Amino acid sequence: MIVDLLNNIDGYLYFPILVIVLAVAGIYFSVRTKFVQIRLFPNAWKVIMEKPKEKGGVSSFQALMVSTASRVGTGNIIGVSTAICLGGPGAAFWMWVLAILGSASAFVETTLAQIYKKRNPNGVGCYGGPEHYIKNVLGKKGLAVVFTVFLILTYGFGFNMLCSYNVQSSFSVYDFYSESTTPIIVGLVLAVVVLVCILGGGSRIVKITEIIVPVMGVAYIAVALVIVFSHISNVPAMFSLIFEDAFNFKAIGSGIAGSCMVYGIKRGLYSNEAGVGSAPHAAAAADITHPVKQGLVAVVSVSIDTLFLCTATALLCLASGVTRNTDVAGAEYVQMALSTRLHAVGPIFLTVALALFAFTTLVGNLYYVDTGLKYLHNNKMPEKKAIVIFRIISAAVIFLGALMPMDACWAVADIMMGGMAIINIPCCIILGGVVFKCCKDYEKQRKAGKDPVFHASDIGLDPDKLDYWKDDWEHNIPDELKAE
Fold first, then answer.
1. 56's torsion region: left (phi>0), alpha (psi -120 to 50) or beta?
2. What are phi and psi of 42, to 5 degrees?
3. Model confidence over 309-368: pLDDT tens digits?
4. Which of 320, 362, 371, 378 is the most buried (most CB within 10 A)?
5. Can you tell me the distance from the alpha carbon of 427 to that of 421, in angstroms, rounded to the nearest whole number?
């Protein structure tokens, strides 16, 4: 009964509510920015390599790795497999659509987080996120608290339970798998390893994700390409199948909630989190000269997640020719696809990949939880004892997730994430005008051959109402820090 209730809430939340909200926001932001996610995509890669302007500041690359660590995870594999098996091959197409339109939403929410971010009390570094512009700009303090609660529930509970389940499910193909003991062992190992890591503090999170995320992402894409090219004769039929299913509106109309379109949107949103309001927390910490720069980095993060990693999973599964059905939805479908060429090594590779993806996701998720707890505690971290207790609870949730049914894990994660998006996206639409002006200012300076530098008054904002971006902010940096 509980699972059925969760599934009903999940189904109604995404159709019609979130499907409409995401589509309207993505189209609106794309049109108003003249498809900045496409026009300035090459420039975004240059921005990533810029160094922070202050000593000890977080670089765009570090912020990208933290946000990508949360975006890139088991959803890129299990989520895509589930969408294709339950919704149909056309789900891949709707993931691509969501990524293109959603990257515009990611650009807007990240730029807003940068504009309205605050400087750390010690004067070095900064922080921010949707709860700050919801409270300080829109004046909705209660709504900001509700958003933050959803953030903590999503990343401290919903996503972590699902992530743990996805990892343990990859062991089901092995002969030693036992429904009564294997989930317990896998859940316990994951919980202990993550707990040890997160008790080390936030600085370790940045260092770990900066190393692991690129390595595991490149390795997974490389293996996916091997599978696709080894089945190259199936590729034309594969793309034909994707597009035929995506535009089979008769089938979609007969059961919209379970269609490839809704599954593609749900799993795409779970994977890239564009517009959800999580990644802006990491992005706000980036030390850059213009807010639009980090907005462009957010576009890259969404592209890495969906257009690269999710697409890799979809293509390797569909090109393999393996029969898909509801019984193999999840890790098993991907493992079967890998086995067509890698044989016994395929399932092992996926288990290792999922473990790495899960690790970075679980650790990255708790980075966001910390920001939420800090906000609810008057922008100060709670006492160390309270933090330790909360992290132990978070580890316990990871353990429990390995024991839960698949439907329940997906529904809980979808509902909590949907709650964040429903709050954040309308707020971004209301405040979007500031971002559009900021984007024009950035492009104007680039056309003049300058490295864009942001001044609030240039886009009609009162510098006195901003905490970080005072019009003379670059002059307040000590000379010795400028030299360094």
1. left
2. -60, -40
3. 899 999 999 999 999 998 999 999 999 999 999 999 999 999 988 888 887 788 778 778
4. 362
5. 10
